[in-house]
Backbone:
């Protein structure tokens, strides 16, 4: 997620569309935490100061004022949940014993900002009737490839064997059991400390493909890949393990907290797999990110799924009107709640197709999704646009669909 979304705002979804063994049906797990009412959420991105803080180096008081203003905007737009990015690049928006303070606060990684953003966000969100979902990125270390730019005490510098440079970035290697254990400890520390309502992941698992580059996990595959038919199956198992183990950790520490994932919106194209969607996406999460998101739903490993359906109705390569029913069918009978991720950031962007210049496009999305009872709500990317509302798309959506204040899901 200047204009950096996840996957650099999905690296402009158009680029990702240029190329234009699942589990059994699982009933809801006993004791699965469920939200009451409709999800009306927004992502609050901190990576590269996308939404908050507006820039590095603000005083603690200025940062706090900006954060509370975003929460107030959510209430004004009649939302009821905020997905707050608290671990954007193997760092922390809270006093973590595992990882350094985020550079996006002070401009210097590891420098104490003088307050606790996550703790404040939880308290202030709840005071406003909002859920606070702590948004983590499991494997991304840095948006560059120079380890010496990391603070000296960074775990990635203390364990260089955990790190893989790829596509101009640094990543933890998902194939190493010690990495999987570490990133869980780092994330679950926040679950233990704060009364968060959910742990939230976005679409980054194995990195998005970069032409001409290879993700070098040869040594890990040689050490741990025995028994798998190929490297892709081993990689998917690594991510499956992270999902299952994290889910168990959340339930053990804070049973009422939920676990949700917001993946890229195409699991597989139907031309690749008859179970896939009627799309022609250039990226498929199963094949390219090694994330079997359909399986996680069908097996009931997570509490909610929020696919990023960041395309307009009628787009040939990935039609919103075809993806919503596909995901509804996946979620049907699984016990996993389905929300839809919406590309508010595209509304009024002159680089986007004509459909996104119409303030009514997003409202039509909610009308269409309303025909599918499996869809339990929507989440909007992202907070800056929820407030600024460049062409009035959010105001139109609120007027059409959120005439009444949101009922708290807590």
Residues:
């Amino acid at each position: 997620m200047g204009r950096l979304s996840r996957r650099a705002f999905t690296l402009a979804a158009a680029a990702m569309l240029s190329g234009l063994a699942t589990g059994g049906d699982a009933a809801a797990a006993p004791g699965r935490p469920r939200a009451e009412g409709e999800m009306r959420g927004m992502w609050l991105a901190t990576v590269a100061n996308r939404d908050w803080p507006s820039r590095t180096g603000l005083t603690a008081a200025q940062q706090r004022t900006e954060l509370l203003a975003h929460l107030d905007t959510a209430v004004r737009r009649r939302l009821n949940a905020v997905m707050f990015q608290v671990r954007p690049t193997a760092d922390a928006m809270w006093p973590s014993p595992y990882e350094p303070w985020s550079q996006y606060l002070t401009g210097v990684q590891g420098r104490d900002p003088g307050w606790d953003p996550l703790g404040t966000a939880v308290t202030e969100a709840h005071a406003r009737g909002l859920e606070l979902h702590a948004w983590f990125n499991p494997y991304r270390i840095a948006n560059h490839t120079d380890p010496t730019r990391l603070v000296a005490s960074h775990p990635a510098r203390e364990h260089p064997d955990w790190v893989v440079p790829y596509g101009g970035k640094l990543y933890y290697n998902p194939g190493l059991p010690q990495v999987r254990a570490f990133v869980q400890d780092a994330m679950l520390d926040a679950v233990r400390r704060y009364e968060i309502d959910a742990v939230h992941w976005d679409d980054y698992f194995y990195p998005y493909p970069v032409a001409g580059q290879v993700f070098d996990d040869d040594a890990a595959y040689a050490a741990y890949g025995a028994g798998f038919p190929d490297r892709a199956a081993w990689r998917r198992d690594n991510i499956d393990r992270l999902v299952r183990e994290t889910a168990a950790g959340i339930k053990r520490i804070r049973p009422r907290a939920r676990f949700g994932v917001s993946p890229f919106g195409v699991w597989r194209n139907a031309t690749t797999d008859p179970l896939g969607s009627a799309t022609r996406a250039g990226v498929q999460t199963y094949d390219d990110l090694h994330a079997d998101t359909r399986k996680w739903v069908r097996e009931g490993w997570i509490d909610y799924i929020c696919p990023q359906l960041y395309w307009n109705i009628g787009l040939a390569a990935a039609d919103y009107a075809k993806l919503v029913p596909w995901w509804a069918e996946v979620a049907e009978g699984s016990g996993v709640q389905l929300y839809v991720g919406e590309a508010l950031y595209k509304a009024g962007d002159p680089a986007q197709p004509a459909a996104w210049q119409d303030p009514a496009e997003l409202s039509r999305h909610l009308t269409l999704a309303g025909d599918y009872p499996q869809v339990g709500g929507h989440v909007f990317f992202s907070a800056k646009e929820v407030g600024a509302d460049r062409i009035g798309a959010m105001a139109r959506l609120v007027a059409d669909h959120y005439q009444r204040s949101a009922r708290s899901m807590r």
